[in-house]
Amino acid sequence: MDPLDERVTSLTLDVTNAAQIRAAVEKVESLDVLINNAGIALYGDLSDRAAIDQQLAVNFFGPYAMIRRFCRC
Q: What angle do CA 39, 43, 46 make, to 5 degrees?
């Protein structure tokens, strides 16, 4: 599909930010496909709870929140 196709809505947002997710949902009139592309890779000490929390927030809970909001589940 042509990236300039008017049927395509490209959105950039922080998937850990609920307000940005809500705003993104409001911008999309209808949804056939959601390309839910978010992720980080923090390499280092796995004993650092903050790093683990950040990875889970971005790589798991953020995309999950996007799916729930866009599918209105």
A: 105
